[in-house]
């Protein structure tokens, strides 16, 4: 679906400043529409809002578009840390998320390996040049036994063996074009018969790759139709060669030492170490493979189906960017994780799962309504931390649950406004690994040169307008129903999002809840300047250099 860019309607209201962007006669008959103005300057200035005949909520959104630099001071309204003459408490010092630390968690370390595997390989001069190894998966059959190396669930920076593993499901399918693909599911013997059984293992295999006939609705076909194949031709002697059946392996075992605690659990991961020959990386299982926690699969199959779509994107992107297109490192963490969550979003309707959108009924294309959304969803998590940085470039910068939430909230808007699966394909199938991959993909769809500043500002406004179904292209998260895209003979349905339907609602600052810290890099701060404003009001503002503002009347 493609929409033409149109301006937001002017609605019986006037925004006036020392350098007004909007002036002249307003069109009639448009009362009730939102009014938006992006203010392209900083420093000290006066800004007048005239709501017209309809009382309005007034928001100032402060955006720091820098991808690396936090603002040094808090944006202020009405003088130095004052709103309409009322003094605000000075912000307390706090660590900023741009403070780099070494990767701490298992997933941090895996993500960093996937971004830059060469940094983790032994020095090449210390070893003879290895010859390419064919993946051992070509010999898989039900009943085969073996062992695998996994990340130590105790969180230490080490590998640990799963010594007794059995292939419990294996099947091969030949596509219409003659290509063969196979799926093997290996299960830790200690969890077979407790966490999983033959039926649940076969179900998992079929949801990933249907082998009774070529399907357009399994995870393999949906993911690859958008972002490409997970492995194939390559010229490095360090990397394995795919077996003749092009097998993808899933290992089911316990990936967590405990399933309680404040930091969440690992549901699954892709680790690019296994794409390397064991002579290049001693811990390689020499397979194109995923790891899935069997306990989590037993507890929530739908969560695991979504996780497979997520991790499959990581697997594909490793091949598409670093191997096929020769990128020296992987994509910035926020972009790679965003892409995986957008893949979850694209396939959720077909898989019949909630997905990251968090509307509890997978068949409901509307925004769900209050009570119809998941308080543990990515959107609810974003609402609680909506001023958190988006562009976290590496796991060592602190990429945790809040960063996942912010990346999805941004990406969900981007996906719905800039081409759906076409956008995701453009980001993944290009050599760029930083924010230019995103801005180039958005530009290719809109036909207008996009920047991170323009995208961050438009996204911020879209959050505030998500409680209406009439926002125009570029600001639309909520149509009231599904938005449908067709790509490579596949149909993808994206549901509507109203950020105000979740608990908590989006984080807003005000004179009674003042901004507590300078805007982090690549972030937005929502400031509610007035409720039910009914008369012209002038605000004195001071914005730190590099910080820009958007004004929203609704």
Uncertain segments of ≥5 residues (pLDDT<50)?
A: 1-32, 79-103, 124-130
Beta-strand percent range: 15-25%
The structural class is alpha+beta
Number of individual domains: 2
N to C succession of SSEs: EEEEEEEHEEEHHEEEHHHHHHHHEEEEE
The span between the termini is 27 Å
The neighbouring-strand order within the major sheet is 8-9-10-11-13-12
Total helices: the number is: 11
Task: Note the main attributes of this structure.
single chain, 554 residues, alpha+beta, six-stranded mixed sheet, four-stranded antiparallel sheet, 11 helices, disordered N terminus
Explain what the structure shows.
- The protein is α+β, with helices and mostly antiparallel strands and 554 residues long.
- The chain contains eleven helices and 18 strands.
- The protein has a six-stranded mixed β-sheet with strand order 8-9-10-11-13-12. A four-stranded antiparallel β-sheet has the order 1-3-17-5, with no helix packed on it. The protein has a four-stranded antiparallel β-sheet with strand order 2-18-4-16.
Provide a brief overview of the structure.
This protein is of the alpha+beta class. It has helices spanning 106-115, 198-208, 219-227, 294-299, 301-324, 333-351, 378-384, 401-417, 421-428, 435-446, 452-464; strands spanning 14-17, 35-39, 43-50, 56-64, 76-77, 82-83, 86-87, 145-151, 159-174, 180-188, 247-253, 268-269, 289-293, 483-487, 490-494, 523-533, 537-543, 548-553. The longest helix is centred in the middle third of the chain and has 24 residues, at 301-324.
């Amino acid at each position: 679906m493609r929409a033409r860019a149109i301006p937001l309607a002017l609605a019986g209201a006037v925004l006036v400043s020392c350098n007004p962007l909007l002036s002249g006669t307003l069109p009639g008959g448009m009362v009730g529409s939102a009014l938006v103005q992006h203010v392209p300057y900083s420093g000290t200035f006066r800004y007048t809002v005239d709501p017209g005949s309809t009382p309005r909520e007034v928001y100032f959104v402060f955006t720091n578009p820098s991808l690396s630099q936090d603002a040094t001071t808090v944006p202020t309204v009405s003088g130095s840390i004052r709103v309409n003459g009322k003094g605000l408490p000075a912000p307390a010092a706090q660590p900023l998320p741009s403070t780099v630390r070494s990767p701490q968690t298992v997933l941090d370390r895996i993500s960093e390996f996937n971004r830059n595997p060469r940094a983790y390989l032994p020095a090449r001069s210390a070893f003879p040049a290895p010859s390419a190894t064919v993946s051992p998966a070509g010999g898989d059959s039900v009943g085969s036994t073996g062992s695998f190396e996994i990340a130590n669930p105790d969180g230490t920076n080490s590998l640990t063996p799963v010594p007794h593993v059995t292939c419990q499901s294996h099947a091969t399918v030949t596509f219409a074009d003659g290509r063969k693909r196979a799926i093997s599911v290996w299960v830790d013997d200690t969890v077979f018969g407790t966490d999983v059984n033959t039926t649940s293992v076969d179900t998992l295999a079929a949801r990933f790759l249907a082998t009774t006939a070529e399907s357009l609705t399994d995870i393999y076909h949906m993911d690859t139709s958008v972002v490409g194949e997970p492995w194939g031709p390559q010229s490095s002697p360090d990397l394995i060669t795919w077996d003749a059946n092009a097998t993808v392996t899933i290992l089911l075992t316990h990936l967590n030492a405990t399933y309680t605690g404040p930091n969440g659990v690992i549901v699954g991961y892709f680790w690019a170490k296994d794409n390397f020959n064991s002579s290049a990386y001693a811990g390689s299982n020499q397979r194109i493979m995923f790891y899935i926690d069997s306990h989590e699969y037993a507890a929530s199959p739908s969560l695991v189906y979504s996780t497979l779509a997520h991790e499959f994107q990581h697997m594909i992107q490793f091949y598409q960017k670093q191997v096929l297109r020769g990128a020296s490192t992987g994509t910035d963490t926020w972009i790679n994780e965003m892409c995986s969550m957008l893949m979850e979003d694209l396939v959720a309707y077909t898989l019949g799962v909630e997905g990251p959108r968090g509307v509890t009924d997978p068949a409901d294309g509307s925004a769900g309504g209050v009570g119809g959304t998941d308080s543990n969803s990515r959107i609810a998590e974003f609402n609680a931390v909506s001023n958190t940085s988006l562009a976290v470039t590496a796991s060592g910068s602190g990429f945790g649950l809040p960063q996942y939430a912010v990346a999805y909230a941004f990406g969900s808007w981007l996906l719905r406004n800039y081409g759906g699966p076409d956008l995701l394909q453009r980001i993944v199938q290009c050599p760029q690994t930083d924010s230019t991959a995103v801005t180039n993909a958005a530009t290719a769809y809109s036909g207008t040169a996009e920047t991170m500043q323009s995208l961050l500002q438009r996204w911020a406004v879209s959050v505030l307008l998500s409680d209406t179904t009439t926002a125009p292209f570029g600001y639309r998260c909520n149509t009231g129903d599904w938005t449908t895209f067709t790509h490579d003979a596949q149909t993808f349905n994206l549901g509507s999002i109203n950020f105000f339907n979740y608990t908590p609602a989006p984080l807003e600052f005000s004179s009674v809840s003042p901004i507590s810290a300078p805007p982090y890099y690549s972030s937005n701060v929502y400031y509610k300047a007035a409720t039910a404003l009914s008369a012209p009001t002038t605000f004195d503002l001071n914005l730190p250099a590099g910080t820009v503002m958007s004004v929203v009347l609704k």
